[in-house]
Every structure is written in C-alpha cells, then in structure tokens.
Design brief:
Elements (H helix, E strand, L loop, with lengths): L1 H10 L1 H27 L6 H27 L7 H29 L4 H24 L11
Length: 147
C-alpha cells in the first residue's frame, strides 16, 4: 500500500506539489483578504472590496513565485528577475479574471464576498497552473536556464 502511494506520488509529483503550493498560497491570499475586510477595509464598498482583493493578490503572488520556483517546478533558470516578471505577468491575467468574477458575483449578483472569494480561488488556481506550466517554468530544450 505504501509503495503504491509512493509510486502514484512520484508519477504525479508536480501536480500534487502544485496542489499543496496552491493550498498554501490560497491560505496566504485568504488570510490577507479576510484580515483586511474584517479590520480596515469595508467589503460593502466596491472600491475597498477590490483594494482588499488586489492586496491579497500581491501577497499571494510573491509567496507563490518562491514556492512554485523551488517546490513545484524546481526551476534552475539563472535569470530569476526575468522569470519573476514572467510569473507576475502571467498572474496579472488571472488577477483580472479574479477581479471581474468578484465584481460579478458580489456587486452584481449579491453573493457573499467571503463565499465568492473561495469560489474564485479555485478558478484562479487552475488558470495559474496552466500559465506557469506552459509559459513561465517550462523546461527549456537543451538548457536549464537562459542568460
């Protein structure tokens, strides 16, 4: 049984590690968002709702870059600033999706912002994996880094 679990983990290691990293990143994002909306930013105000959303995004992206680089994709690129910029740009697309979906669910449809944030996080996590895998941490043919 233990061997079977280990073999399955090894077969799907990147996806399993990404899910673990995604859970940790989601915790960081939600902790920042909930911390802000329960203390200093009123989520009933659309501007303050989005401010809390953006601040939680920034904290989550910085955390996610480091955990994805080392734990998930095991990047060996030497051009870390370029890689980080690519990572952030990839996340901008999902940030816009996040903000649009939060606006639609909370402001237009009246869904509770805490519940909407959980739903949006699932959608964003899937989008972020695809972007990271295809564009940011893709294996470079014939070399492990770019100068």
């Amino acid at each position: 049984m233990v061997t079977a679990i280990k073999n399955m983990y090894l077969k799907y290691q990147e996806i399993v590690n990404y899910l673990i990293a995604g859970v940790l990143t989601t915790i960081v994002s939600l902790a920042i968002y909930y911390g802000l909306t329960f203390t200093v930013l009123n989520p009933d105000n659309p501007f303050l709702l989005q401010a809390a959303n953006v601040l939680s995004w920034i904290g989550a992206v910085v955390f996610a870059y480091f955990i994805n680089r080392s734990f998930v994709f095991k990047s060996e690129r030497n051009d870390r600033w370029k890689e980080f910029i690519e990572f952030v740009l990839g996340r901008v697309g999902t940030l816009l999706m996040d903000m649009g979906t939060m606006f639609l669910l909370v402001t237009v449809m009246g869904v509770n912002d805490k519940i909407a944030k959980l739903v949006v996080q699932v959608i964003v996590t899937v989008g972020n994996y695809v972007i990271s895998k295809i564009f940011v941490f893709k294996k470079r043919a014939g070399k492990s880094d770019e100068a």
